[in-house]
Amino acid sequence: MTDHQQTASATAQMNPHPLSTTARRVVQNVERVIVGKGDVVELMLVALLCEGHVLIEDVPGIGKTMLARSISRSLDCTFRRVQCTPDLLPADITGTYIYNQRTSDFEFRPGPIFTQVLLADEINRATPRTQSALLEAMEERQVTAEGDTRALPRPFVVLATQNPIELEGTFPLPEAQLDRFLMRVSMGYPTEEDDRIILDRFAEGSPLDELPAVLHTDDLLKLQQECRRVRVEDSIREYIIALVHATRTHSQVELGGSPRAMLALFRSAQALASVRGLGYVLPDHVKYLAPYVLEHRILLRTQSHLRGLATSEVMREVLDSVPVPAEPVDADPVRGPTTTEGIAEEGVTGEGATGTDGPEC
Length: 361
What we know:
The protein has helices at 3-14, 18-30, 38-49, 64-74, 91-94, 128-131, 135-140, 175-178, 192-201, 217-227, 234-249, 259-275, 283-294, 302-306, 311-321; strands at residues 53-57, 79-83, 95-100, 105-110, 117-121, 142-145, 148-151, 157-162, 181-185, 253-255, 299-300, 328-332, 336-340. By secondary structure, the protein is α/β, with parallel strands linked by helices. A 5-stranded parallel beta sheet has the order 2-5-8-1-9. It has a two-stranded antiparallel ribbon with strand order 3-4. Strand 12 and strand 13 form a beta hairpin. The chain starts with a helix and ends in a 21-residue tail after the last strand.
């Protein structure tokens, strides 16, 4: 950690951004169930503050489903779970019209997608036709059935899981759907010490059964708007643009980050800054989030696949190739930096550096 980061961190602890206290309560509440995965829980909270969808990719038994349920309970959100299988139909997710004999008319029966937190378990086991049923909902927060369009409740977040190891009976997600996920995360195996804690904690039952809500839905919607007011300096904006552009121009990349990816990185950095107690975005926030937000959106060339090149290697090269802007100094955790190394102070104003509302990620 640099001197500037230590100073900013110490200042944030003394005078934190209002959201950080609430975020800490949510993370601590989820960690009553999920052991040793504070970084993953933080990323999930960042995604929720952006109202973005998350693809949780890992082997079975790690706790992906329990993580999703713990977060929905902590936020007092409605939760539905869909177990994706090859015989699952689009109507099983979106809903369908059923004839009502009492009224002698057809009435719409909403599917599980009409919820605030939807867990699509093993999403890559559903057929492409069924996967496509989520596209409109994930982007436009609405569902169209038989020509009628219905809005989904807010917030609306899809938490999808998939097993990257098992390939039999699976259908890889197309690029159009991957691009709709704000970020892709992996939980990984717990440490030996974490395993001991898990055995002790779950010996007499699941703590999930008694997990309380620490943040109401209306408060979450307000915090989502609060995150959009987190300050982003011009140098940070240029850094985000340069990173996304570098994924498009890399020699081994067929398809790089889209404008949606750029907005996703921008929004995520704002949310992470506020969760960590700052009212402004640091370059390290962007650099930390870039692999989670951009990596699953990168499509490598065929020759690169044949040579065994991984997207994680390309992402590291992209991060190394783009110069990191100077860190802000003399910063107030709520108002943001008053001066920046290498940038004239009069070139940055409060209004010009504040994130404005735009297309949702």
